[in-house]
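From the methods appendix. Each design record in this collection lists the tokenized structure first, followed by the designed amino acid sequence. Records were kept in a plain field format so they could be parsed without special tools. The example shown here is representative of the layout used throughout.

RECORD:
FOLD TOKENS (169 positions):
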């Protein structure tokens, strides 16, 4: 059983951002649900993954320069500020990003995308699939940054957190 409950409820900006993310997740989930009903699940899943990968790569490339130091090397000490500005930090109830050498570890305790899918009544299996599709974007953000991405665990797969690692190539 997936547990995905927000603990930070009094942050107006985070709640506003959560609402927008919830809406986008709901669109995605309902679009995929209708594709399943029409017998087009595999085709639409592939389309969603390709589109989300394109967006992730664009985002990664756009912020890459902001992570470069004066020698043109990725400076992961800037990672949190660029990928998780304060409102996003609160929205996902993130822990401070742990930077260790060439690795940035990101941990989220809440997911507004998952909340959107849960609110539509999707079962845990559907939520996990939609999460996997959405996480294509994070992997491609890493690609755009010139990094690798590893998702160790996710809330949608029944873990208490989403636990991600971005590593320099």
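DESIGN:
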């Amino acid at each position: 059983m997936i547990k995905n409950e927000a603990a930070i409820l009094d942050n107006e900006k985070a709640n506003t951002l959560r609402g927008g993310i919830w809406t986008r997740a709901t669109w995605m989930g309902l679009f995929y649900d209708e594709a399943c009903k029409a017998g087009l699940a595999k085709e639409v899943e592939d389309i969603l993954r390709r589109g989300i990968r394109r967006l992730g790569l664009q985002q990664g490339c756009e912020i890459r320069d902001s992570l470069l130091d004066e020698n043109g090397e990725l400076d992961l000490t800037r990672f949190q500020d660029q990928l998780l500005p304060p409102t996003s930090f609160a929205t996902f109830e993130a822990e401070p990003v742990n930077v260790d050498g060439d690795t940035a570890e990101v941990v989220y305790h809440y997911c507004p995308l998952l909340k959107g899918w849960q609110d539509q009544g999707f079962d845990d299996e559907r939520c996990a699939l939609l999460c996997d599709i959405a996480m294509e974007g994070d992997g491609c953000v890493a690609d755009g940054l010139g990094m690798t991405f590893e998702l160790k665990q996710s809330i949608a797969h029944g873990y208490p957190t989403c636990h991600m690692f971005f590593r320099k190539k």
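APPENDIX NOTE: The first strand starts at residue 98 and ends at 100.
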